[in-house]
Design goal:
single chain; alpha+beta; Nonspecific Lipid-transfer Protein, Chain A; 5-stranded mixed sheet; 4 helices; 5 strands
Length: 108
């Protein structure tokens, strides 16, 4: 069975490493197109991560990508910097946060 966006995002709270994000309060908005379109947001606050479906009115960072490309980024089949440079990954907001996201999680 292949990984889905729903699987990926539902596993994020369990993979979150709060010690890597001390004092961070941020909202990351995920906007997916493609085979699994949808909007999700992740709130990092007080050492915890909460995932919800929907659009947050005031995200710190917005990440827009095709759902299949985002899964490839997460599973290391697609380099995030190459995806960004090719326009497959669009970022808006706090770009320094975007550069740190992967260190906040135990990666597979």
């Amino acid at each position: 069975m292949s990984l889905t966006i729903n699987d990926l995002l539902s596993q994020m709270p369990g993979a979150f490493l709060p010690e890597k994000a001390p004092g961070l309060n941020a909202i990351i908005q995920f906007n997916f197109s493609g085979a699994e379109p949808g909007n999700w947001n992740a709130e990092i606050k007080n050492g915890a991560l909460k995932i919800e479906k929907g659009v947050h009115p005031n995200p710190t960072l917005s990440v827009t990508a095709d759902s299949a490309d985002y899964i490839k980024i997460f599973t290391h089949e697609l380099d995030p910097m190459q995806a960004f440079m090719k326009g497959k990954l669009k970022l808006q907001g706090d770009l320094s946060l975007a550069m740190k996201i992967s260190q906040f999680f135990k990666l597979p």
